[in-house]
Automatic annotation (TrEMBL):
One BP annotation, GO: positive regulation of transcription by RNA polymerase II
SUPFAM superfamilies: P-loop containing nucleoside triphosphate hydrolases, RNI-like
Native source organism of the sequence: Oreochromis niloticus (Nile tilapia)
Chain segments annotated as coiled-coil in the UniProt record: none
Domain NACHT: 228-368
Keyword match Nucleotidyltransferase: no
Record's protein name: NACHT domain-containing protein
Matching InterPro entries: Leu-rich_rpt, LRR_dom_sf, NACHT_NTPase, NLRP_HD2, P-loop_NTPase
Alphabetical list of SMART domains matching this protein: LRR_RI
Region spans: Disordered: 181-209, 453-524
Length: 1818
């Protein structure tokens, strides 16, 4: 600091001369009036002398005026000069305080010294205005300087108190900081003062170091902090508070980065927490920091000066992490605050940081790393305190133990460096002091034991050392905050910077864990951090000189040889109990400071005596000083709180679970603010270890807890930890914390589970310490598997971490990704690589590796013989580095893949790898991309090279070709991306005969001209091994077998002639691609003329060649002329797709189908189509003409033209189908011979009136129709009536589709009437809802039964009456189904003559359902069956009522009363079904009570009810008479009684106990009963237990032995494994009548499934099979295809979800999630199931071939209503095949295609074409 100038010692003129430059800058910023006022102090003759006009106001003249004025007064008299300087000080603004003080000192104070040299001043009696300012300003400066002096004394006194007894001197130049990039808001103005504002000091430029690895001293870091907000972060105990006091001491001494002219304000947030009321800035400064001595005047003067000169203040805010409030993150308003108004403390601090208060002031904030996020957008500079390195730790240990006991000091240093936990703790100064106390205790204890209890060292010396240590501990304990930080800088920088630190040097490590080895006689250091803290606790307790915990007086400290830590803890149980309670209370209340009254006095004295608590002074709200106490470190408080959790039942399990959570190292803005270090759960895990149990039991005795309680609490912790181990959602930092927790628990079983759910651990952007790696090693080494992967991405770590990492056994995959990892890192890694004996894959990509590092890694990799994959991509290896890696290829025989891309390589690197192939024969594939990649793949033989995007010249091509010629045989050579000219290609073709290429050469994007194309084409004739050539200018050029592609080559007809000529005798071509050229019709003609020479051709693609209708006619003629040409596909009139397909092997087959497909041409004329057809009719083959999307005004959009095409049915007997529609594809298919049946579909026309009449005439004259589709033709009721009137004269065998023809109820009645008027009509199905449907089905067999189904008919009374007449007049009508009708008329029900009637009504249910059933019986006595299921009524005609059913109708028990009166009128009732209602216990009892009144009852179903003991008693009397009993889903309190009674049911044929939970006794009873029921035919025992042992399974299966009449058996959900299936396989051959077997939800493997199917082979009557939810696979599916043909009654479709049916039945069938996608053979068998209704093939990963097979069999399944293909691998091709087949299945209502590989656009398109294609999940 510059010293002030005394006017007596220095001339005023010389001062002005020295400071004139700075004064010039200050005066230049003043207003014009101030300059004019100063100019008036010069006489006018002086201005004339300098030839300057003082009245000039121009900006250009202003600098000259100021310079002239300064020059004049510099040589003027001392009096004039003083007057000038006084005027400057009192008139000018923003003069730096130091300069102003200097000028005022030499200018003097005497007002009479003023000399008026200005002629403008005339009043000699009045004082000048600036003198009045002087009287105010000068005292203000005096108060300011006086206050600064007082602050200096205060800070020096504070520093003296803090540093008393410090072990190590504190110096800012010896403290290391890592600068971090500050996150400043964009809109925040730069408040950095200018050089003038700083009193002439030019600050150091800010360094945005960006990475945490860079480091500087704290002294250097603070340079340039003036006028900025600087944040200093560090861990708890890292010395932040001490350093802020040191900074204040340096300021007070005139040193450091803060000028002494500034006021230095040091505030602690722990003090600010006590200020609850609003304060003004003056109150905060003078009441709670330092009051001035000058009273209120001084306060006002100081505040006034501070507000005027805010840049001359420095505010140090220490310990933001302890602040209870959190800075608001809302957008801060930049307007200044009113400082005279009281504000909350948080607002004052926020205003200071956001420049709303004292803008331009210097602010320094200290906090922990995780609190830095609160200061985002506020801070200008951020630095992180680095922990001590080993040299600093050793220096501290030496200072701690002193020079008196050298042996003890050396042993302590060696012991500390050998312990990873102690070493990690000691990087923090406060914890280093604690570690030293612990080491002293351990060493003295060990020494006393070794010497047999020799006397302690001199008590006085020991006491002196202890006092010093306690002072240090008390000091460091003030840093009870912070959690994160990092120890040192980047390993790559460490060596360069070591010279900057005194005595810094690398510590050489040895041993298995990289630490110095100790003699075997050294004391044992605790294995975990928790045990270390237990020892620390014992160490502090052993320092108590007065008494033990039992109150017995002690004359000296514990003799170390006589006691252990457990003994010490046991003697202080009560004190530790109180301390742990205090710690836990503080933790719960987020409090680290405790007032005196909050701590028991005895405990307080004891804690202060042994050093566990330290004292601090705080000023209360009223300004009175008070004592507060805190633990010496936050981790000590957390450890004691953990002791409380584990030893006191005051902390319940819920509180423990709340506190037990892993903490991430990544800070989030949403994190709850806390002062603690989040180490509590670590200590809790450590205390859960069995090693800590004895200590916990001792301490728990005080709380009344016993050993069992302690162990229970430990088990709970381990259970919580196990849950975390099994979680697969943890991030990298949390997994690392989990490893620490598991290590603390020392539980190897938990460690195994960590990698059980995550074989690869990814760590990203974490600063890793050696103790982190050690925790990781503990977990890795406990795992059983050897395929563990570790992936380090952008993780900072010291080189020592790699030494620890080498302790990890079983590492399979090791990855490093970051630019932080360079050659030194690779060198250290290479030294430990051979220790990874299980290493298979090494990745060192995206790093800073050069050739030097590559050489190191290559050396280390030679010690890894089992490695298979190496990835060194995205480094800077260059060619030299690649050569180092290539050298090890021959030494690592297990290599399979090496990735070397993006390494700044040239052709030399590629050439090096190719040369390596000649010596390393196991290289399979070299893939080089000049821009992206360089990969080497290994195998047993050389296979493939890919050298992409290499822009070689002719000489380089020759060099490459020579290397390739020496290579062993290659299957593929890829040279794409070269863009070579003709000469380079010619050079390549010259060497081609020397290459050993077995498959192909790929040169995509390498042929750049037609000349080059000709060079390559010549290979087909010049070099016979070349069998295929694909050339595209823009995409591809491949040389392979039997194929020639010249797409996108701009070929014209003349060029094509040259190319064809170059082909010469290459007649073996199978594929020729000429697409996207300019051939036109002339080129097409040349191509067709060349066809005879291509005798083996299979496909020609001539698309996009500007071919028009002339070419189309040529193609039609070619289809007839060339026998081998079988298909021609044309779209867009020939301008788009033109594709020709050939079948050379079937050239003489006249039965061969030929297809001419012409689509997507809106301009085709009838005359053009006539030309095409005239060519096609000349064909003697079976052919098919397809016209799709060919729309023209005179084409088939009109009904008249459509009818002309339909007339071909009468003209030609070879037509197999006619499909015409103006909105979709149109087809006319022909056969080579006469056909028996024709399919006719005319849709989306307007077939009204005459058009319909004409159509009917054609159809009556035409052949037999298999089906007729007239949907969507606007027929309406009148035309439909005309059609059905003519229906008897039409020859139709399957169905007629009249859907979507705008029918009303009248049309419905007309269609329904066909049941009476047309004898061969077997069924009518009509729906008038949103999806209008109308089908007329024709009889397929000899049966005469008919059915009528009306859905959504909206029928009114008159319609119902007419419908009843139709129904009554149809003698063979056996089934009628109706939707909701207006009302059920008694007359309507009475006249029914049908066998079966179904009516659906929404109101049917509950009490109305009961009433409806009774009403039906009263109206019609000839009803055999009355069944109401949900809201549908089913009536069956007969003479007597035999079945009464109310199923799932929500009937309550009290609603059954009316049934009691009906029962007597039904003496022949044989079946009663009241399943799935809500009868309740009373309703079930009532129902069972009336059972005895039904003497003929043989079938009873009460599913879903609770059968009480009373109801069971009533039922037992009836059971012997029953033939069928269904109690599925029942709750049976009296179950055992019922099961026992089953043994008397000797005539029982059907038994269902599905989902009836049976215990062991009930199952045994059931087995006994089954042995007695030999008549059983149907047995359903699905889900009868939640878990069943093998004995129960085998016992129940054995009970079915001898049941030769068994037809159906269901054993789903038994979880049967191999033994059960084996027993079942032995029984199945005895069930000769078996028709259905259900074994879903068992444990049937693929092998067991095969044996089961073999056993079922002899069940010739088998109709249904269900094996869903088993683990079947391809083996079982293959066996199905072999076994099913022999089962003639079984539908070849096998159900794995519900059931399978025979050909005679119509049921639901699923093949869902069977474990195999090979289902084509099974699906093909559906063609033999014409009555199948539903098919499920979901969740099988089926591909398009299954969909194609389904599409093929659909025409055979006329009754199919639903297909489920969800969650498969169908593409749009498979979906389109299904869409095309939909027209053959009019009854099909839905195809589920959710979750297939179909793009969204195709989904929308397909769904619009047919709404039955469902792509949603519902």
């Amino acid at each position: 600091m510059d010293e002030e100038v005394n006017p007596d010692h220095e001339n005023v003129n010389s001062v002005l001369a020295q400071d004139s430059i700075e004064l010039f800058h200050i005066l230049s910023s003043q207003s014009h009036s101030v300059i004019m006022e100063l100019c008036q102090m010069m006489p006018s003759e002086a201005w004339h002398q300098y030839q300057v006009d003082p009245s000039s106001s121009s900006a250009t003249a202003r600098p000259e005026l100021i310079k002239t004025m300064l020059d004049y007064f510099r040589s003027a008299s001392a009096r004039k000069c003083r007057n000038f300087l006084q005027r400057v000080c009192f008139s000018c603004e923003n003069i730096p305080m130091l300069l102003e003080s200097r000028l005022m000192s030499v200018a003097g104070y005497d007002s009479n010294s003023y000399e008026n040299s200005s002629p403008a001043v005339t009043d000699q009696n009045s004082s000048p205005p600036f003198l009045e300012q002087r009287l105010v300003k000068r005292p203000r400066i005096d108060h300011w300087q006086q206050y600064i002096s007082e602050v200096e004394k205060c800070l020096l006194k504070r520093w003296k108190q803090l540093t008393a007894g410090l072990v190590r001197e504190v110096q800012l130049e010896n403290v290391w900081v890592s600068p971090r990039a500050a996150n400043r808001s964009r809109d925040r103005p730069d408040q950095t003062p200018s050089s003038a504002d700083r009193g002439g000091r030019t600050p150091e430029p800010d360094g945005d170091y960006g990475y945490l690895e860079s480091r500087v001293t704290l002294e250097t870091f603070l340079q340039g902090c003036l006028g900025k907000v600087t944040v200093l972060v560090g861990k708890t105990g890292s010395g932040k508070t001490l350093l802020t006091s040191c900074l204040g001491q340096q300021w007070a001494s005139g040193l450091g980065p803060v000028p002494s002219s500034f006021v230095f304000v040091l505030l602690e947030f722990r003090q600010l927490n006590l200020l609850s009321r609003p304060l003004s800035l003056s109150e905060l400064l003078f009441q709670y920091y330092l009051p001035p001595t000058g009273g209120e005047d001084a306060k006002r003067a100081i505040i006034d000066y501070l507000l005027t000169n805010p840049e001359q203040s420095c505010w140090v805010l220490d310990g933001y992490d302890e602040f209870h409030s959190k800075l608001s993150k809302k957008e801060v308003q930049r307007k200044p605050l009113h400082l005279e108004d009281p504000l909350p403390v948080a607002d004052l601090i926020s205003g200071l940081l956001n420049r709303q208060i004292l803008p331009g002031s210097t602010v320094l904030v200290t906090c922990r790393v995780r609190d830095l996020i609160d200061l985002d957008g506020i801070s200008d500079k951020v630095g992180q305190l680095l922990g001590w390195d080993q040299d600093e730790i050793k220096e501290y240990v030496d200072n701690f133990f002193g020079a008196k006991d050298v042996a003890l000091r050396e042993q302590a240093a060696q012991l500390l460096l050998s312990s990873r936990h102690l070493l990690a703790m000691s990087s923090i100064p406060a914890l280093c002091n604690i570690c030293c106390i612990c080491l002293e205790h351990l060493l003295l204890q060990w020494r006393d034991k070794a010497t047999g209890g020799a006397p302690m060292p001199d008590e006085k010396g020991s006491k002196a050392r202890t006092d010093a240590q306690e002072a240090e501990g008390a000091q460091m304990s003030r840093e009870a905050r912070g959690e994160e930080g990092n120890r040192r800088g980047n390993p790559a920088q460490r060596k360069q910077e070591d010279g900057k630190r005194k005595g810094s040097k690398d510590v050489i490590m040895d041993g298995t864990n990289g630490r110095p080895q100790l003699a075997p006689t050294s004391p044992q250091v605790p294995a975990t951090l928790t045990q270390v803290y237990l020892t620390v606790l014992g160490s502090f307790l052993s320092r108590d000189p007065n008494h033990g915990g039992d109150g017995r007086p002690k004359t000296k400290r514990f003799p170390h040889s006589a006691v252990t830590t457990l003994t010490i803890l046991s003697q202080y149980q009560s004190e530790l109990c109180e301390l742990s309670r205090l710690a836990w209370t503080g933790l719960e209340e987020s409090k680290i400071l405790f007032l005196k009254e909050e701590i028991p006095q005895e405990v307080l004295k004891f804690s202060l005596r042994i050093g566990l608590l330290s004292q601090v002074e705080l000023r209360r709200q009223d300004g009175i000083l008070a004592s507060a106490y805190c633990f010496i470190h936050l981790t000590v408080q957390e450890f004691l709180a953990a002791l409380r959790i584990m030893t006191s039942n005051d902390v319940n399990d819920a509180q423990l679970k709340k506190r037990f959570s892993l903490k991430t190292r990544w800070t989030s803005k949403s994190d709850q603010k806390t002062v603690f270090t989040d180490s509590l759960y670590l200590y809790v895990c450590g205390l859960a270890s069995s090693q800590c149990t004895p200590a916990l039991v001792e301490l728990a005795k005080v709380s009344g807890s016993v050993q069992s309680w302690v162990q229970k609490r430990q088990d709970l912790v381990l259970k919580l930890l196990k849950t975390m181990c099994n979680s697969n959602t943890l991030t990298g930092p949390k997994i690392l914390q989990l490893c620490h927790s598991v290590q603390e628990s020392q539980n190897h079983q938990l460690a195994k589970q960590v990698f059980g759910v995550r074989p690869k651990l990814e760590l990203r952007n974490i600063w890793l310490l050696p103790n982190d790696i050690e925790a990781l090693a503990f977990v890795v080494n406990s795992a059983d598997q050897n395929d563990i992967g570790l992936d380090f991405g952008a993780c900072s770590m010291e080189l020592e971490c790699l030494i620890v990492l080498a302790r990890c056994q079983g590492i399979h995959n090791l990855s490093f990704h970051s630019r932080k990892y360079g050659d030194k890192f690779a060198e250290k890694l290479s030294s430990v690589l051979p220790k990874f004996t299980s290493l298979r894959k090494l990745e060192f990509s995206g790093a800073s590796l050069t050739a030097t590092g590559a050489a190191s890694l290559a050396s280390g990799l030679q010690g890894c013989p089992h490695i298979t994959e190496i990835n060194l991509s995205d480094n800077n290896l260059r060619d030299e580095g690649i050569s180092y890696i290539a050298e090890i290829f021959t030494k690592l025989q297990n290599l399979s893949n090496v990735v070397l891309g993006r390494n700044s390589t040239t052709l030399n690197a590629v050439d090096c790898l190719i040369k390596t192939m000649s010596s390393c024969l196991n290289i399979q594939h070299v893939h080089a991309d000049g821009i992206k990649d360089l990969t080497v793949t290994f195998f047993q033989k050389s296979d493939m090279n890919s050298l992409l995007n290499q822009n070689w010249n002719k000489s380089e091509m020759q060099k490459l070709a020579e290397s390739l010629a020496r290579c062993p045989a290659l299957s593929v050579l890829d040279l794409s991306g070269g863009q070579w000219d003709e000469e380079i290609l010619r050079k390549l073709t010259e060497f081609l005969p020397q290459f050993s290429i077995t498959e192909k050469i790929i040169i995509n994007d390498s042929c750049s001209s037609v000349e080059g194309l000709v060079v390559l084409t010549a290979l087909l004739s010049d070099y016979p091994p070349v069998m295929e050539l694909h050339i595209r200018y823009t995409h591809a050029s491949n040389l392979t077998f039997a194929s020639f592609s010249l797409s996108y080559c701009n070929l014209h007809p003349a060029d094509l002639e040259s190319v064809l000529r170059c082909l010469g005798t290459s007649s073996d071509l199978t594929m020729l691609d000429l697409s996207s050229n300019c051939l036109g019709n002339k080129g097409l003609k040349k191509l067709l003329d060349f066809l005879p020479r291509l005798c083996k051709i299979q496909e020609i693609n001539a698309s996009n060649n500007d071919i028009n209708m002339e070419g189309v006619v040529m193609l039609a003629g070619a289809l007839c002329s060339y026998n081998t040409l079988t298909e021609i596909h044309i779209s867009g009139g020939g301008k788009e797709e033109v594709s020709l397909k050939f079948c050379p092997d079937e050239s003489d087959d006249k039965q061969q189908l030929k297809m001419f497909r012409y689509i997507k041409d809106s301009s085709i004329l009838p005359s053009d189509m006539t030309k095409v057809c005239r060519k096609l009719v000349q064909s003697r083959f079976h052919w098919e003409l397809e016209l799709s999307q060919c729309i023209h005004a005179n084409s088939i959009t009109s009904a008249a033209n459509a009818l002309k095409l339909v007339s071909c049915l009468t003209d030609s007997q070879r037509v197999t189908s006619v499909e015409l529609s103006p909105q979709s594809d149109s087809f006319i298919n022909f056969d080579a011979v006469k056909v028996e049946q024709v399919s006719c579909r005319l849709t989306h026309f307007c077939l009204k009136g005459d058009h319909l009449k004409k159509l009917l005439e054609i159809l009556q004259q035409g052949p037999q129709l298999s089906d007729l589709d007239l949907s969507s033709n606007q027929l309406e009721d009148e035309d439909v009536s005309s059609f059905v009137h003519s229906l008897p004269r039409l020859k139709i065998s399957t169905y007629v589709n009249l859907s979507n023809n705008r029918l009303t109820q009248q049309g419905l009645l007309a269609v329904a009437n066909t049941l009476c008027t047309c004898a061969n009509v077997s069924g009518v199905e009509v729906s008038l809802g949103e999806e209008e449907q109308c089908f007329i089905w024709f009889r397929q067999s000899e049966t005469r039964e008919k059915s009528l189904r009306v859905r959504e008919g909206s029928l009114k009374r008159e319609h119902l009456v007419r419908l009843a007449e139709i129904v009554s007049s149809c003698p063979h009508l056996t089934k009628v189904e109706f939707p909701a009708a207006a009302e059920l008329q008694s007359k309507w029900i009475g006249v029914i003559r049908t066998f079966l009637l179904s009516i659906e009504e929404r109101w049917i249910g509950a009490e109305k359902a009961v009433g409806l059933m009774c009403r039906c019986l009263q109206l019609n006595s000839n009803i055999q069956t009355v069944s109401i299921h949900q809201n549908t009524l089913h009536l069956i005609k007969s003479t007597e009522l035999t079945t009464d059913s109310l199923v799932d109708c929500a009937v309550n028990g009290y609603q059954l009363a009316s049934i009691e009166s009906v029962i007597p009128s039904c003496p022949f009732l044989t079946e009663l079904d009241f399943s799935h209602n809500i009868l309740g216990v009373e309703g079930a009892e009532f129902l069972c009570s009336v059972l005895p009144r039904m003497p003929n009852l043989t079938s009873l179903s009460l599913s879903g009810h609770q059968i009480s003991e009373t109801a069971a008693q009533n039922m037992t009397t009836l059971l012997p008479c029953l033939r069928s009993l269904n109690l599925s889903h029942c709750v049976l309190p009296g179950g055992l009684q019922l099961i026992e009674a089953l043994g008397q049911c000797v005539i029982l044929e059907d038994l269902c106990l599905d989902s009836v939970l049976l215990n062991e006794e009930s199952r045994m009873c059931l087995a006994r009963a089954l042995r007695n029921i030999n008549s059983i035919c149907r047995l359903r025992l699905n889900e009868i237990v939640t878990a069943m042992d093998n004995f129960s399974v085998l016992d129940l299966l054995a009970a079915t032995k001898g049941h030769t009449h068994l037809k159906e058996i269901e054993l789903g959900g038994w979880r049967m494994a191999c033994r059960g299936i084996e027993e079942l396989n032995r029984l199945i051959p005895t069930w000769t009548e078996l028709r259905k077997i259900k074994l879903s939800k068992n444990l049937i493997s693929d092998q067991s499934g095969e044996k089961l199917l073999e056993a079922l082979k002899d069940c010739s009557h088998l109709e249904e099979l269900c094996l869903s939810d088993n683990t079947l696979g391809n083996l079982t599916a293959a066996r199905m295809a072999l076994i099913f043909p022999s089962l003639t009654h079984l539908s070849p479709f096998c159900s794995f979800f519900n059931s399978v049916t025979s050909k005679r039945l119509s049921k639901t069938h699923f093949l869902t999630s069977v474990g195999t996608s090979e289902l084509c053979a099974v699906v093909a068998s559906l063609a033999h199931c014409p009555l199948i209704q539903e098919v499920g093939l979901g969740w099988n990963n089926c591909r398009d071939e299954v969909a194609l097979e389904v599409a093929r069999v659909l025409p055979f399944c006329h009754t199919l209503t639903q297909i489920d293909l969800e969650c498969n691998s169908l593409s749009v091709s498979g979906a389109e095949a299904l869409l095309k087949a939909l027209r053959f299945c009019p009854a099909l209502q839905l195809i589920r295609l959710w979750k297939n590989k179909i793009f969204e656009g195709d989904v929308h398109r397909l769904a619009l074409r047919d709404r039955r294609m469902n792509f949603s999940s519902t």
